[in-house]
């Protein structure tokens, strides 16, 4: 039915149009926020002009040009057309129900990262950031713990942000001044976890990692100098000429 409707509208404009280039197309949309809030649309365009559309929220076809208003009036009085559109609306809502049911059973585990940054012009010298990426469904709880106790002061959060691809992310910040023996934990609760996940950070472990990185870099640099020295020695050895005694 929709294809015949498209053909009728486009043929009409093909006959009456004086434009040099002719291009027409139709779109079918099933837009929804929930099963009970789905809208079925059939839209027609010709040479970038919006000719008209069927909208399930009003259950009629509306024409937006002088040529299509009359045809839209005829379609809306046609019981066969209305019956077919009702079937299309039911297909739309049934597909939405199936999609939402499938998504409700889908869970994607988040990727969590802790980062430490220095803060200037604040009462605290540092800020810990707990970033939680690429999770589904949307509902999630992120909590800061200090030595096992919940921290609420000096904590800010971005709220849950959409990635635009059905996945979400959230970032929570904790301002603090490092002290010896402190242990901070980012606690993440999500449907993809059987139990809350704990991601720990403490100043000593951070310092140890930095020392290890410096030591590793030193060893790598030493290896480079050693390799250069060996190559230089071998090259000079091959270039030497033995001089026989007199």
UniProtKB/TrEMBL annotation:
For whether the record's keyword set contains Disulfide bond, the answer is yes
Instruction: Name one matching Pfam family.
Output: MHC_II_beta
| Signal sequence range | 1-21
Tell me which GO cellular component terms the UniProt record holds. Answer: MHC class II protein complex
Q: Read off the SUPFAM superfamilies from this record.
A: Immunoglobulin, MHC antigen-recognition domain
- SMART domains per the record? IGc1, MHC_II_beta
Alphabetically ordered keywords of this record: Adaptive immunity, Disulfide bond, Glycoprotein, Immunity, Immunoglobulin domain, Membrane, MHC II, Signal, Transmembrane, Transmembrane helix
Lipid bilayer topology: Single-pass type I membrane protein
Q: Cite the Ig-like domain residue spans from the record.
A: 110-192
Chief location bin: membrane
Q: Name one GO biological process term.
A: antigen processing and presentation of peptide or polysaccharide antigen via MHC class II
- Give the matching InterPro entries: Ig-like_dom, Ig-like_dom_sf, Ig-like_fold, Ig/MHC_CS, Ig_C1-set, MHC/Immunoglobulin, MHC_I/II-like_Ag-recog, MHC_II_a/b_N
**Highest rank taxon of the organism:** Eukaryota
Tell me what this protein is called: Class II histocompatibility antigen, B-L beta chain-like
Taxonomic placement: Eukaryota, Metazoa, Chordata, Craniata, Vertebrata
């Amino acid at each position: 039915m929709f294809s015949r409707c498209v053909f009728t509208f486009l043929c009409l404009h093909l006959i009456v149009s004086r434009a040099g280039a002719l291009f027409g197309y139709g779109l079918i949309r099933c837009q929804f926020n929930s099963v009970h809030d789905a809208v079925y649309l059939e839209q027609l365009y010709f040479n970038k002009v919006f000719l008209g559309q069927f909208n399930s929220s009003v259950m009629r076809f509306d024409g937006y040009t002088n040529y299509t208003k009359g045809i839209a009036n005829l379609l809306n009085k046609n019981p066969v057309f209305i019956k077919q559109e009702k079937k299309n609306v039911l297909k739309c809502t049934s597909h939405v129900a199936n999609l939402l049911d499938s998504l409700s059973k889908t869970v994607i585990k988040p990727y969590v990262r802790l980062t430490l940054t220095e803060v200037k012009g604040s009462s605290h010298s540092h800020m810990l950031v707990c970033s939680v990426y690429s999770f589904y469904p949307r509902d999630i709880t992120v909590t800061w713990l200090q030595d096992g106790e919940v921290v609420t002061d000096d904590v800010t959060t971005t709220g849950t942000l959409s990635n635009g691809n059905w996945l979400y992310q959230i970032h929570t910040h904790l301002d603090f001044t490092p002290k010896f023996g402190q242990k901070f934990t980012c606690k993440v609760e999500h449907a993809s976890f059987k139990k809350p996940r704990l991601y720990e950070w403490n100043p000593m472990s951070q310092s140890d990692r930095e020392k290890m990185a410096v030591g590793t870099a030193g060893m790598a640099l030493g290896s480079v100098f050693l390799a250069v020295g060996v190559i230089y020695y071998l090259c000079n050895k091959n270039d030497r000429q033995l001089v026989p005694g007199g």
